[in-house]
Amino acid sequence: MKRRTLLPLVGAIAATSFVWPLRLHAQRSHPALVGVFTTVDASGRGLVPAEFDAFHQAMRDLGYVEGRNISYAYASKSGQPPSLASLPALAVEFVRQNPEVIVSPGGVPYVRVLMEATSTIPIVMVNAQDAVENGLVSSLARPGGHVTGLSWQSQDLSTKRLQLLHETLPPVRRIAVFWDSTTPRSTRDATDAAGRALELELRDVEISGPDAFESAFETAAEWRAEALSTDAGRIVSSNREKFVALAAKYRLPAMYHQSVIVHAGGLMSYGPNYPDMWRRAATYVDKILKGAKPADLPVEQPMRFELVVNLKTAEALGLKVPPSILDRADEVIE
Length: 334
What we know:
By secondary structure, this protein is α/β, with parallel strands linked by helices. It is built from twelve helices and twelve strands.
């Protein structure tokens, strides 16, 4: 089942006095170096291949051939997401490679450390939450400085996920909400407000990394949680097999932020189409390499949001997903 939700693009191009070097293909004597501030494995594959492939295919569609007129640098080839504590040093080392533009898919913390490491290299956000509220840009229409890209309002999405989970499991009243230290306070407050409006009892559970997954689930089980919702971002998506296995072990129906987790066995997700956001990030890179100033490129919001449901997981949990949810789903895994 397919459905598309469209949001308008944000703003018009704004003038700025920020000076940026001209980068035209015709003037190049060597491939442009694009830095992607993310982790790849030893073979050069991203931790979420669908997103990674979408970006590289979009770059090829725009005329960039690796080794001919483009080359890529990555933050790490460890195959594991870096810890938050290691990000500042990693960003400094990464910037020393002097890429012409940096693509940052790790959310707000990643963009912040890059902004601290360089005030001149253009930074393209792929999926930063609440970019204005978090001080990454001056406004969506007029970013200012050297950061632009894609952002969304996390409060709205977190609230929507809770509403959809409640509609899927109407008898459930006790829901654990897993978050990490990067989850904005405004998002947690919006989730709490939505829980009160729906007459739900919520329990915040912080997870600092994959090593904390087991204890987080134990905390939820001791509290007698009946379901869970996640606001923990890439910690969960980059370690999705482990997280989904624990959700199955503790028999907790879970709402996720990203469809790749549902494809790995999670129950359901609602959020932006991440491969689409990576494809759109490639257009920013292209414009900047051709001489556009980041301050002149309005920050855009996601155009595609998707609800994905895994009926195999629902059956394993003994759940029947209501027709109202299935009818609205963009994808149903059977």
